[in-house]
Amino acid sequence: MMTLLILFFPLIASILVFASGNNLASKVALLLAAAELAITVYVYSVYKQTGADSFYYFKEWISNPKISFHLGMDGLSLLMVILTNFLTPIIILSAFNRNIENAKAYFSLILFMQFALIGVFIAYDGLLYYIFWELALIPIYFIALRWGGPNRVPVTLKFFIYTLAGSLLMLFGFIMLYHYNPSHSFDIRELYDNASKICSCNQSWLFWMFFLAFAIKIPIVPFHTWQADTYKEAPTQGTMLLAGIMLKMGTYSLLRWLLPVVPAGVAQWGPLAITLCVIGIVYASVIAIMQKDLKKLFAYSSVAHVGLIAAGIFSLNIQGFQGSVVQMMAHGVNVVGLFFCADIIFNRTKSLQVEGLGGIRNVAPQFNTMFMIVVLGSVALPLTNGFIGEFLLLFGVYEYNTWLSVFSGLTIILGAVYMFRMFQRVMLGNTSETTSVFKDLMWNEKIVLAIIAITIIVMGIYPKPVFDMAQPALQSILDKVIIK
Amino acid sequence: MLTDSSLIAPGMLIPLFPLIGFLINGLFGKYLPKSITGWIASLAVLASFCCVFYMFTNLPSTGSLHIDLFNWIGFANFNISFGYLIDPLSITMMLVVTGIGFLIHVYSIGYMHDDEGVTRFFTYLNLFIFFMLLLVIGSNYLVMFIGWEGVGLCSYLLIGYWFKNDAFNDAAKKAFVMNRIGDLGFLLGMFFILFNFGSLDYAEVMKQASLLPVGSALLVTITLLLFVGATGKSAQIPLYTWLPDAMAGPTPVSALIHAATMVTAGIYMITRSGVLYAMAPFSMEIVAIVGVATCLMAAIIGLMQNDIKKVLAYSTVSQLGLMFAALGIGAFASGMFHLVTHAFFKALLFLGSGSVIHALHGEQDIRKMGGLSKYIKVTFITFLIGSIAISGIPPFAGFFSKDEILSKAFEHSKIIWAILSISSMMTAFYMFRLVYLTFFNDFRGTEVTKKHIHESPSTMTIPLIILAVLSIFGGFIGLPSVLGFAHKFQQYLSAVTAPAQHILDESHAAEVSHSTEWILIFTAVIAAIASILYARYKYISNKEQPAEDASLTGINKMVYNKFYVDEIYETCIVKPLKVLSDLFLVLIDKLVIDLVVNATAWVVGLSGRTLRLVQNGNTGFYVFAMVFGIIVLFVIRLFI
Amino acid sequence: MKEMAMNTVPHNWYLFLSTFLFCIGIMGVLFRRNAIIIMMCIELMLNSVNLLLVSFSAYSGNSDGQVFVFFIMVVAAAEVAVGLALLVSIYRNIASTDIDKLSKLKW
């Protein structure tokens, strides 16, 4: 019941917000998202007492083909849900003090997005999961298309078609999986149990179908070209949803729907995948150095970070897995912070080009401090959340292969290069014409950035709760992947 | 292992005070009057110092205190705790950090009094002390790494303290990035340790390592990777170029971070990992070679610099090289000893130079100084004491530590000894070149500046005096055995360095005889005095002045331009990286990948455009196509 | 049943007849240009199929085929109704039912 509540509450909220009218929409949305967060906290407390068992929900849905309405939350799913529900109110709050046309539709779509994302994270039936996966694409498409930047139409189309093509492959994959699975079911338990009964040749095909779908979403180089433009054109809240949560759909799915489902395929193609990820890390970091547009720079840095997450997952050891989960949480928070900082700059100066900026620190010291903390989290300074993740991920990759780890370790150097380069040119130096009248943070911006900054530091100092929650789920996944 | 419960509380408090100071100034600084923020920060450091001193007096030199605060990164059988280890080595470091740190804090109150962002300055300084204490107090490599990167951050913040100046910002960024290169080495070294020994805890790692054969490839790899980290932080070849640039920061920062404490972290780390290094002779050789090379190269560059702080910066690089050379030849305690005395006199020199700069309203070029001894007496005398100490004239602090390293070097290898001696001579020369050009002869600056020359306030001179006293007497903690004293400092550290020393002694044990040592001492002292006299002859008697930039030629020009190392890095690494960045974006991203993506879309479009021709609107054609299709299907179904 | 069939018209004849009718229909559809005639030819094809279904139904003693025939007749009637309505509408517009003149509906 708890599971149904946490899933459908955002859907109801979305409808309520739409009904509340443009003037009230943002406040109602914030209130309802906060309520959802409260539910999440309660669920977390229940989880602490009883474990994952109390969250399973199973109902027959369609008998032939056998599709069931199967939901559940183990530590991994719950962490993702917590991330989603923690970020959504922040994202909504970040839109305060901004002029948004047709606000009721905007906030309603954000909440609808939340609904679909939670569905992705807690669906334990393949087709149900697929439905939520596709459902998540719809609100973000409209958010980007309706409220996006000047070049939004072609960019959004590219994004939509690109990800849809990936999803199509995944659908093929699921159908094939259903076909080859002796028990003919989409249920995750059946898929896990029968994973070894599918011949390795078919597993290779299945691996690529799923991997491509996830690789596009994550995105892993070379399937990333939709991303930078989409991040740039989407409105800030859309970008936050995309980068903060939606990317995690891909990495989460690697853990949940790829590794344990086709272990033989992973054994065969995992090395190629991890190599691709590692190349992507360095490649994206290098590109980020010379980016002149803030949002694009953050987009490429995001490619590098999630590339490392994916590499950690494919390193197939518990350090890599744990690192990936911590880093998913950390990156979610940090990237929302980064894009919000970009939004604040855009809101004041109407420009995201690094060139014309500079000297903002002179006029906005509070903003400077917050931005600095977010940047530090992003470059993985110890005692920030980014460090825990990157340390474990790099160590996981190291256990897999020393040289890959050396190569992907370049990200800590390159990350410092592009982030500090950007920070210097945007924030430091003398004020320019555009930045001399920069207004320091407004109340909602203060709250959002303060929450993000505190989370960055607290998670960096005490990440234990995340480890404890993820450990059983990750261990069981790992046991299924490693073929004895 | 001794765990006295009465020591745990002060042990835990040590890094906490600066953190509290940081939080007070950071969060509430804008509500506090500017004049007291400096005192809050200073008191925080003083409180730490008292705790450390309490530990120093109460913890026996054979004991160590291990405090586990909490399990930091822990799951399954993977556990890294956030723990403190307090033993003679960390106490030594902490005494230096908090003691000199406190003096520099007090000095900064005077030095920064008219700066608008003084609260911010002290916030950063406290944060630095916190991270530096964490670095030396940590009980495992990961906690050390927190401090390691943390001090890097503070260094970044403080070098770029005057953030309106883009050159300063560049210097700050350069420092951070170069440190990061080293940090990657450190990180990889940690991975090797963690993977092979299953722990990052010093005690556990050393225990496991000592079970391996001497010179095993694993140990060599680990130690070399850690050394990469050390070269970054301690400004050794090839990663030293950030340190001279780091002089962009306020002078107290240069004294605290870039002379006395942070840059010595590499020395501390290698001493801490003594057993690992002792087990890897090859790495020791590398450390020695890099140390010696850095020592010489930086000393040569120092000869030609005209910025008072740049001279001191290269001197620091050179002295750090000397310390690394000491470590490389297996004299861990001597390296640490020199670290301590160097902290005294180099902090003194930097603060003295700060006082000079303060008196001249920001002038740093020694060509525009001269004759200052008349105007700023205290600064002059203390600066002179510092210079004598660094030149190695007995009985000043630098003499004992430097001489100890030189005699150890002599027994290890004559070549190393020779190069280090030459570097020491150069050190003596350029330090006195600095002294003569700054304080003697006539003032060469403008009249306006001349009128305003004034001695610094007492908050600045008192730390100078204290440091001067330390520079004079500081060496007595390590009086050598040749004079018939027990080496107190060595004994104090022996509990920590003994295991490594034990391994090293097995391989070579030749001790220099006392007569040889006397000869070495005399040679060194005479060489130093000769250098000083030469400097005096050149700059006092002949009244020579450093040449103008343009008139330099040949080797002088090359040295003046620091062997063009920065330019080489710029052309070989920075520019290619930028080009690569553009190339990746334009060529691979936009051209190749997007080409494939767009080609897919184009193929779909093309097939649409082609196939729509079939839709010609002619019903007869449709009917014909339909019938034809049916026939084809029939044929396929029936005959194929 | 079987003997009854044997005594009457051979089954093959139905097949030939229906094939013949179907081919006439196809030819008409392919070669005539008058829309009304084309529709009549389509009807002819449908009816040839009907004939085939009925004959097979009788042959195999299963009435499914005859049920289908009714379906087809209903559909055909509906189709003719719609089709003729369209034709009337077209004729009003272009005063012709020549399909070669109906080529506006294209890309």
User: Major sheet of chain B, described briefly?
Assistant: 2 strands, antiparallel
Kindly state the percentage of residues in helix of chain B.
Answer: over 70%
Strand content of chain B: under 5%
Using the CA coordinates, give the radius of gyration of chain A: 21 Å
Main sheet of chain A? 2 strands, antiparallel
Strand content of chain A: under 5%
Overall number of structural domains of chain B: 2
Write out the strand line-up for the largest beta sheet of chain B, numbering strands in chain order: 1-2
Total tally of structural domains of chain A: 1
- What low-confidence regions of chain A span 5 or more consecutive residues with pLDDT below 50? none
N- and C-termini, Cα separation of chain B: 88 Å
Please give the most extensive interface between any two protein chains, plus how many residues each contributes: A-B, 55 and 49 residues
What is the ordering of alpha helices and beta strands of chain B? HHHEEHHHHHHHHHHHHHHHHHHHHHHH
Task: Report the span from N to C terminus of chain A.
Answer: 38 Å
Provide the low-confidence segments of chain B as ranges. none
Shape, principal axes of CA atoms of chain B: globular
- H/E element order of chain A: HHEEHHHHHHHHHHHHHHHHHH
Tell me the overall shape of chain A. globular
Report the strand count of chain B: 2
Number of strands of chain A: 2
Compute the average pLDDT of chain B: 88
